Amino acid sequence: MPILELKNIETYYGAIQALRGISLEVEQGEIVTLIGSNGAGKSTTLKSISGLAKVKKGSIIYKEKDITNKPPHETTLLGLSHVPEGRRIFSQLTVKENLIMGAYSVKGKDVIQERMEMVFNYFPKLKERLNQKGGTMSGGEQQMLAIGRALMMNPEVLMLDEPSMGLAPIIVEQIFEIILQLNSMGITVLLIEQNAYQALSIAHRGYVIQNGEIVLSGKGTDLIENEQIKEAYLA
Ligand SMILES: Nc1ncnc2c1ncn2[C@@H]1O[C@H](COP(=O)(O)OP(=O)(O)OP(=O)(O)O)[C@@H](O)[C@H]1O
Ligand SMILES: [Mg+2]
């Protein structure tokens, strides 16, 4: 039984159909990656899951419950955390305040403190910068803060939308390292990446999205060897 399943999802922005029947499965404990060109529908797929985009047809099943079109605050509470494209941290708030915002529904100072310590284990730098304004952090630090904020809800499934975007190769390495660590701690990961090679290298499985449809799927290692993928995404 997959932890998350999309069945024939169709999502529109007004009259524009962004998803044309997306079906995919994520098993508990997996890293699954979505790859595809600009505008293919990757971000819309994550937004459809977290409730940021309205699904017109199809259904989304999470832990055997239908969560189709549940609003973002509900999906977050259920254990699905979404780190959106472009990070979207609160630039005027400090690192600490950003993390606390991430735990908006968590009651009890002790729990919040515990969660923060867990975040600092992954991102020691955030601890050193607790009182720095989010907007003055470097790109890599902001990405770490965005992931840290998502971890404050103690998610079961972490959805990451292009976490390596615009970052220097060494920082990208660190981000991928953290994703592997989080996964080894039991967090299921749904990852969108423009860096298809790196994403497929760490993913158990991958799906290729083209024009709002899944055109190919398979094991990460098999997809890396696939000629079509090599030509389109690994060139
Ligand atoms: N808010 C919006 N209003 C109208 N159309 C949108 C909106 N957001 C996305 N779209 C359209 O939906 C389609 C899918 O977009 P989406 O953002 O999911 O692509 P993507 O695969 O994440 O691309 P990228 O790699 O550039 O981030 C595109 O044609 C895009 O123009
Ligand atoms: Mg996108």
UniProtKB/TrEMBL annotation:
<dbReference type="GO" id="GO:0015807">
    <property type="term" value="P:L-amino acid transport"/>
</dbReference>
<dbReference type="GO" id="GO:0015658">
    <property type="term" value="F:branched-chain amino acid transmembrane transporter activity"/>
</dbReference>
<keyword id="KW-0547">Nucleotide-binding</keyword>
<feature type="domain" description="ABC transporter">
    <location>
        <begin position="4"/>
        <end position="234"/>
    </location>
</feature>
<dbReference type="InterPro" id="IPR030660">
    <property type="entry name" value="ABC_branched_ATPase_LivF/BraG"/>
</dbReference>
<keyword id="KW-0813">Transport</keyword>
<dbReference type="GO" id="GO:0005524">
    <property type="term" value="F:ATP binding"/>
</dbReference>
<dbReference type="InterPro" id="IPR052156">
    <property type="entry name" value="BCAA_Transport_ATP-bd_LivF"/>
</dbReference>
<comment type="similarity">
    <text>Belongs to the ABC transporter superfamily.</text>
</comment>
<dbReference type="Pfam" id="PF00005">
    <property type="entry name" value="ABC_tran"/>
</dbReference>
<dbReference type="GO" id="GO:0016887">
    <property type="term" value="F:ATP hydrolysis activity"/>
</dbReference>
<keyword id="KW-0029">Amino-acid transport</keyword>
<dbReference type="InterPro" id="IPR003439">
    <property type="entry name" value="ABC_transporter-like_ATP-bd"/>
</dbReference>
<dbReference type="InterPro" id="IPR017871">
    <property type="entry name" value="ABC_transporter-like_CS"/>
</dbReference>
<dbReference type="InterPro" id="IPR027417">
    <property type="entry name" value="P-loop_NTPase"/>
</dbReference>
<keyword id="KW-0067">ATP-binding</keyword>
<protein>
    <submittedName>
        <fullName>Amino acid ABC transporter ATPase</fullName>
    </submittedName>
</protein>
<dbReference type="InterPro" id="IPR003593">
    <property type="entry name" value="AAA+_ATPase"/>
</dbReference>
